[in-house]
Amino acid sequence: MVVQLGRIVLFTAVLTLAGAQSLFALAPVTDDVADLYSRAARIAVRRLPQMHLNQQPCNDFVATNALETFLTMLDFDHSLFLAEDVSAFRREAKDLDNRLARGDLDFAFKVYDLLMVRLSNRVEFVNRMLDKGFDLTVDETYAWDRRHASWPSGTNEWNDLWRRKIKNIYVGRVAARLLGEEKKAAAEQDGEEPDGDEALDEELDLSPEDFIRKQFQQQITVFNDNDAHWLLPLYLSSFTRIYDPHSDYMSANHAEDFDIQMKLSLVGIGALLSTEDGAAKVERLIPGGPAELDGRLKAGDKIIAVAQGDEPAADVLHWPLSKTVRLIRGEKDTKVVLTVIPKSDISGATTRKIDLIRAEVKLEDSAAKGSVENINGLPVGVIRIPEFYADIRGQRRGDSEARTVTRDVRAILDGFRTNDIRGLVLDLRNNGGGPLYEAMELSGLFIEKGPVVQVKSSQGISILRDPDPALVYSDPLIVLVNRQSASASEIVAAALKDYGRAVIVGDTKTHGKGTVQTLIDLQRSKPELGSLKLTTASFYRIAGGSTQIEGVKTDIEIPSMLDYLEVGEEYLPHALPWSLIKPASFSRFDHLQDILPELQKRSEKRRAEDPRYAAYRELLTYLGEKRASKEFSLKLDDRLAMARREDEMSAYLNDVFREDDEDEDKDAEDDEDQADLILDETLLILADLITLSEEKRQVPDDAQPAAEVAKE
Question: Is the distance from CB of 294 to CB of 355 less than 8 angstroms?
């Protein structure tokens, strides 16, 4: 596709199973569309340095890095473009910022035009390879992680890369089909019903050749359907993301999608999606939504097809994310069927279908919830906070009953008094954040007074304090987190850790998102120009360190699968670095430092003796090994052995958790049972904390501050 400011050349490919032909046809682009994005570009390039936290000029450095980002957005595994193509593009890189300032966007379509030529060539090559077939006994490998790989140099290297790439998909499908046949035969021999996923069996009915041809026909069809409204926001965002990964240009349509995501009431499945490797990746599930309640869809899964009810599925691989989102949304009480690649399958060879009934996600479903547990004879409380929320409109009206997370938690704590709880777990796993003020107020429930967080913006550094001196809860406290606890969750965990008020338990660390984004209209009187979502401030702990990148490190690690996946700010390109500022002045309790070594020792001993953790550790170790290898064998025997091992491990884990699950109605295949396993151990850690604290007679409410940290 080539666009100049008054016209567009649409690239159309007509595929046959024997090969591919490329047809080019001119289609006009109206002057108002051309002018729209040209004006948006001129304004954006001026406002980026003014409004972003770093105030980095939009210069040659930004332009050269934006080019690399744009190329990777279009060619995520560096397999379509040739090294010579990229070299030619790079010769123009240092002028791209100047062209953007003039509103000249021709370069984006020059790149896209060549991409389509290369894609057409590769589809033809794929069809030839499938006609020829593969020798699955050859001892060779495929490097599956090519995000940072060099583009292929020359046709021979290009062809070998694609032969291995297609063979990798092919052998994975063959192995999955053979494993399915083995399981079916074994079940029939035992006189049992085959144990498997009917949707998965249906997907595997498609031959490996047909599956691959279908996948690439879909890819080229989608790329042909893209237009200026898809490509130009992508190109402009390639510049904003050099400033940091959370900054974006948002067209009018994208801004509408963003607004919908921010609302707590939305008819859909309740999932926050992003784009990765051409697929819609599930970033997190909205608490109380259909997907979260169903339990089968997981953060990290990739959605590659969407069906409405019992209708045929539409392949959404390589679709624009906004288009995929609109297909998933729909009327309340209607069925949507997702085809996903599970997060644990790095090869992408297996898929699973998940049917969900759309529903309205309400504030009540995302609200904090409390429960009382009895652990070793000790009554303890658990408060699960899926996200931070506040009825801002009600607060502005002066409504004293306006719903907020802090008010809800305070009410839960008041209710716990009738149970005389001895300790508390504050569960912030998968909590992506919310209003900053709520993070401050919530932290204040567990301390008497003092600073909670420091915020740095272009106006300077502000120290934000607990707004209420009342101490609502003073007994032993654990904050449970994982790598998807971000932003406001990290503020709470960091403050309570810095005060020595709580023990932090969970993954090795939290997400590490220590920044604040603001949505800024390019021109308020012309919303059709779109908006900039820019990072305008950053968070710092009261001890001085940023929560950016490093997050909050846990005192007692109970790793989850997230620790073995690339989840965290440090994996995002162009993430802002960790930094340090002057500590705030606050008094810290140090009694937990004396207790922590014994807490860690007891927890490690319990887990070492628990067969459930042995199975869980084996799964995590295997996942870690697969990710570390960076290559897959292309021999059928090796891949079939890998498929068998994964299936046996999954079956073993299901058996272990099924035996331990007292609720027979609970889906044993739901790996949220592993999350419950982590909560179970956290409750035992809390019981130890209560006992050890009482032995030392240093419970938080009567302990003396051990040190006063820094003076303002």
Answer: no
Phi-psi region of 149 (alpha: psi -120 to 50; beta: other; left: phi over 0): beta
Of 459, 454, 460, 457, the residue nearest 540 (C-alpha): 454
The answer to whether residue 381 is domain-embedded is yes
Pick the closest to residue 572 from 245, 330, 346 (CA basis). Answer: 245
Residue 590 and residue 473 share a domain: yes
In this structure, are 399 and 354 located in the same domain? no
Q: Any idea which residue has 């009738």 for tokens?
A: 418
Report helix, strand or coil for 644: helix
In a domain, 200, yes or no: no
Whether residue 251 is contained in a domain is answered as no
Do 445 and 337 lie in a common domain?
no
Query: Domain holding 287: CATH number?
Result: 2.30.42.10
Are 272 and 399 contained in the same domain?
Answer: no
Q: Among the three residues 303, 338, 361, which one is the final residue of a domain in this structure? A: 361
CATH code, 629: 3.90.226.10
Residue 58: which of 73, 37, 69, 42 has the closest Cα?
42
Residues 225, 274: one domain?
Answer: no
Those residues of the chain that have pLDDT short of 50 are 1-28, 196-201, 257-266, 658-675, 698-712
Determine which helix (DSSP H) or strand (DSSP E) holds 5, and give its type and residue range.
Answer: none
**Which pLDDT value is given to residue 3?**
28
Residue of 583, 502, 511 lying closest to 245 (CA atoms): 511
End residue of a domain, out of 331, 361, 391: 361
Closest listed residue to residue 152, CA positions, set 173, 125, 182: 125
Strand, helix or coil at 586? strand
Residue identified by tokens 């288009």 is 323
d(CA 636, CA 135): 9
Q: Are residues 311 and 426 in the same domain?
A: no
| Whether 348 and 478 share a structural domain | no
Same domain, 418 and 553: yes
- Helix or strand holding residue 532 (H, E): strand 531-540
pLDDT digits (tens, 9 = 90+) for 588-633: 887 788 899 999 999 999 999 998 888 888 888 887 887 788 889 9
The amino acid that residue 184 corresponds to is K
CA distance 244 to 518: 13
Q: Is 476 helix (H, G, I), strand (E, B) or coil?
A: coil
Neighbours of 186 (CB within 10 A): 12
> Domain residues for 347?
265-361
Q: Does any domain span residue 593?
A: yes
The 10 Å CB-count burial string (b at 16+, else e) for 82-117 is beebbeebeeebeebbebbeebbbebbbbbbebbbb
Supply the pLDDT for residue 710. Answer: 44
DSSP annotation of 485 reads: -
Rounded CA-CA distance 431/388 in Å is: 8
Residue with tokens 């450095």: 61
Considering its fold, how many domains does the chain have in total? 3
b/e per residue 373-382 (b: at least 16 CB within 10 A): bebeebebbb
Q: Quick: pLDDT tens for 646-702.
A: 777 767 666 655 444 444 343 433 444 444 889 999 999 999 999 999 887 644 444
